[in-house]
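User: Show me a protein chain along with its predicted structure.
Assistant: Here is one chain, sequence first, then structure tokens.
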Amino acid sequence: MTLSHTQVVRSVPVAVPSQPATDASRFMGEILVEAERLQSVDVDRIMSFQEGTRVRFGDAGQALGLLTEDDVRYALSVQFDYSYLPADCRLSRELVAAYEPASRVTEDLRGLRSQLMLRWFDTGADRRILAIASPGQGEGRSYLAANLAIVFSQLGERTLLIDADLRTPRQHKLFNLGARAGLSDMLVGRAGPDAVVDIPELRGLSVLPSGVIPPNPQELLGRHHFSTLLHSMGEDFDVIIIDTPAASAYADAHTVAARAGAALLVARQGSSSVPQMAQLTQGLREFGVTVLGSVLNDV
């Protein structure tokens, strides 16, 4: 599944916060030589090509056939302290926020991030958790949760993505984690904090996969231990994004959102049901959940 566009619904214009360039003083050629992507003699060739022109180092290197676009992206990621995914990375291409930082979809995700910071995450020390929910299957919850977690980590926030879909989980596939212990195993005491996986390619991002699919997901998520677990993780992370199963089919999403305190709803244009969205919104509010808004996919 690849979503072509993401649009915030019922939103207000918000400026995207700027990020300081922590290593911008390093020369691109130096970075690429250090990474063994370029030879020192080739740096001299590129600089000679630049003389008398206004061509940037990366453009000059590509014009000479000494650099690839991937090389330039790598150097820029180092200069601006930005998570970099090479074209041959093992992670899913659905993680568009990491693979395509200049795309319109990623810009929309950054805009959504800014609104969520102002509406929820920056409004109280106890507001660190957000559930992503939708009524039906295939509406883009896992896609949005994963990419939203990535853009929060790119902001410098210590971010945890939890796959609380204990029925048809996807996050372990998106991040190529394989079959391993996760949330379900932690909830029954079969695994500890080491079930949380740091994603080395994406600094600041950790993922807690679903783990073994249990026979009683609703009961596991409804136990007090889940709340305790979220509270303890809130001490280690600035932002926690939780993926959930389809709310119209299972009560899990309501339970998870109630534990989180807030939810962002997802709909897909042309397939989501307006009455189901309204019913989900009302149901979550009856659970005491703050519904922050909705996102319409495939606009």
